[in-house]
Amino acid sequence: MRHPYVVLALFLILTVGGGSAIGIATAPGDWYAGLSKAWFNPPSWVFAPAWTILYLLIGIAGWRVWHAGELQASRLWWLQIGLNFLWSPVFFVLHWTGAALLVIMALLATIAGFIAFTWRHDRPAALLFLPYGAWVAYALLLNGAIWWLN
User: Fold this and answer.
1) How many Cα neighbours within 13 Å face the side chain of 17?
2) For each of the chain's 150 residues, which pLDDT tens digit applies?
3) Domain membership flag for residue 100
4) Which residues cross the membrane (predicted)?
5) Which one of 37, 103, 131, 150 has the fewest beta carbons within 10 angstroms of its own beta carbon?
6) For residue 74, what are the domain limits?
């Protein structure tokens, strides 16, 4: 069996590294700059530090459920990371704001499912996901506003 802290490092590389790579590859450009946005849209500089912190929390939570052998929570974790990594290309590359809205709705539902499941089995993992859920709910509002306004 692998040393648990080696696996933790792998989870963090996946989440922080993968999220950063996708963020760089799908960086908002002129298309995004030209969109009408809601009054509550934050400045662009907020997103990188917010996601870096969230990806650290997501990685730690994923490692916790892996380490505990929680198969159902692990499945939910992998589903949410897949949806998370899918959203940026759908929104920023394909410019499909409506499809991205559906992806982020599924992501938020998966995050809520992860929190609900782990609340009973691994409370710290659930707590690690609370800021992520709040941020994705906010991002859903931002995505919805962009879809509506454009």
Assistant:
1) 6
2) 578 889 999 999 999 999 999 999 999 999 999 999 999 999 999 999 999 999 999 999 999 999 998 999 999 999 999 999 999 999 999 999 999 999 999 999 999 999 999 999 999 999 999 999 999 999 999 999 999 999
3) yes
4) 45-64, 76-94, 100-119, 126-149
5) 150
6) 4-27+48-149
- Residue 57 CA to residue 127 CA, distance in Å, equals 9
| Distance separating the N- and C-terminal Cα atoms of the chain | 51
Two tokens at 37?
């946005």
Residue 119 included in any domain: yes
According to the 3-state scheme, what is the secondary structure of 30-64?
Answer: HHHHCCCCCCCCCCHHHHHHHHHHHHHHHHHHHHH
Helices 97-121 and 123-149 pack at an angle, to 10 degrees, of: 160
Number of structural domains in the chain: 1
